[in-house]
Specification:
GO terms for molecular function: nucleotidyltransferase activity. The protein is α/β, with parallel strands linked by helices and 245 residues long. The protein contains six helices and 14 strands. Helix 3 packs across helix 5. The longest helix is centred in the last third of the chain and has 19 residues. The termini are far apart.
């Protein structure tokens, strides 16, 4: 299916990125001259999204001022100044600003570069892969060796039929969660109104055999610390050189 709306999680405190985030929110930290949240929004626009909710909390005025300069996709603000709601609670509140139906959730502090000459972007592929009849959620995943700036943690094991389970030592086909999800807004209807993590929803979907994964066709980057910015910029430069060669 084609998914036209998204929720971007951008309300975190960015404590590991200090001292940079003493004065700016983490999603506005620049990698190769561009704010991380803009990498995420550009990927969503490329994937066909026309409306995105972005939640704000820490240094929210800066976030709102930056986002006002964007016109594509259309940006709506979910204000969490009064209470930080974690990933699940933040998504649930943001969904109230969107139409019921299929939606992407995407983190604002990571992004990827699709392999050259691909026929469809990874988000487009994720939307096409998602089947709400058999899946609660479809997660974009990436092998550890295609990550930059990651801490080395393996999140899930991807089975041959596409189902995901929590990774344990020795399991086959370990993958890293790439920070993008396809789901329907109604999946969070029967959840708390306060703070809760999406990990709770992941585990519930795993129990029902309804958490699926799709492999990213490209390279995934994140920058959680000031030192990781240089790593991400070096990787982007290397990828650009490979494409130009």
């Amino acid at each position: 299916m084609t998914i036209r709306q998204a929720m971007v999680l951008a309300a975190g405190l960015g404590t590991r990125m200090r001292p940079i985030t003493d004065t700016i929110p983490k999603p506005l930290v620049k990698i190769a001259g561009k704010a991380m949240v803009d990498y995420a929004l550009d990927l969503l626009e490329e994937g066909g999204v026309t409306r995105a909710v972005v939640n704000v909390h820490y240094l929210a005025d800066q976030m709102e001022a930056h986002l006002k300069a964007r016109h594509h996709p259309e940006i709506l603000i979910s204000d969490e100044r009064d209470q930080l709601l974690d990933s699940g609670g933040g998504a649930k509140k943001g969904f109230h600003l969107l139409e019921p139906g299929p939606v992407f959730i995407m983190n604002s502090d990571l992004f990827w570069v699709d392999a050259p000459n691909v026929h469809a972007s990874s988000l487009t592929r994720l939307g096409q892969f998602f089947d709400p009849q058999t899946m609660d959620m479809a997660l974009l995943c990436v092998p550890l060796e295609r990550t930059t700036g990651h801490n080395g943690k393996k999140d899930f094991s991807l089975s041959p039929d596409g189902r995901l389970t929590r990774y344990r030592d020795g399991m086959e086909n370990p993958v890293v969660y790439a920070g993008a999800i396809a789901l329907t807004t109604g999946l969070l209807n029967n959840t708390p109104d306060g703070p809760f993590s999406l990990n709770r929803i992941f585990d519930r979907a795993i129990e029902g055999g309804r958490l699926y994964g799709l492999m990213l066709n490209g390279d995934w980057l994140t920058a959680g610390t000031p030192e990781a910015i240089g790593e991400a910029e070096a990787k982007l430069a290397a990828l650009a050189a490979e494409t130009a060669a």
